[in-house]
Please model this.
Amino acid sequence: MVTLYDDERLDYLMTNERLKIIQSPTIFSYSLDAVLLAHFTYLPIKKGHILDLCSGNGVIPLLISDRTAGKITGLEIQERLYEMANRNIKLNELTDRVFMLHGDLRERQADLQQSYYDVVTCNPPYFPTPKETEHNHNKHLTIARHEVMCTLEDCIKSCKLYVRPGGKVSLVHRPERLMDILTLCRAFRLEPKRMRFVYPKAGKEANTILIEAVRDGKAGLKIETPLYIYQADGSAYTEQARRIIYGI
Model:
């Protein structure tokens, strides 16, 4: 049994109804982006070490936990979300192989071994907001969505710090930041190898991008087929999106 605080609620993860997750609309609730990143990410099946940066309430470690027998570690800067993630791990009886750390990715973490992880994932804040008036009134949502505690460069630099040579880094972001992502990846010796654009539906502009890079990898970028979330009339998910979102 776990304790729920304030306006928290207990949900089932849509991709796997064996797993439950504590969420809060005023603190943090996971979005489709986390589901897409978890599905897109290459994972070692039998063993390995995976690190999730900007981990929030631990949704990505939970989502990938049934696809790998490896050890999964999440790093989250917000204490409230770190504590929520720990309760999610205990709730799903994953304490033997999923772990959370409370810390700032801009600082080297003593509990994280450098150049060690086979896979590093990151769902970073998307929006640079130079003016305080542009921030969300809710500080938890501001930190999750805006580059007030870390920038895109901070995230990519941290990915490179912890992934092993030849290891993979997976990111989800917005297409308008594509050139920034590619430029920063190469600056930190992370070679982009795989990319997928996600569209709300056919005829609309892409609103999400998924990128995989390899540390010290050779040049050669594969563009995967586009992913459309809704059918053309917007009435329902596409079959491909349904398989990703519901795991069926």
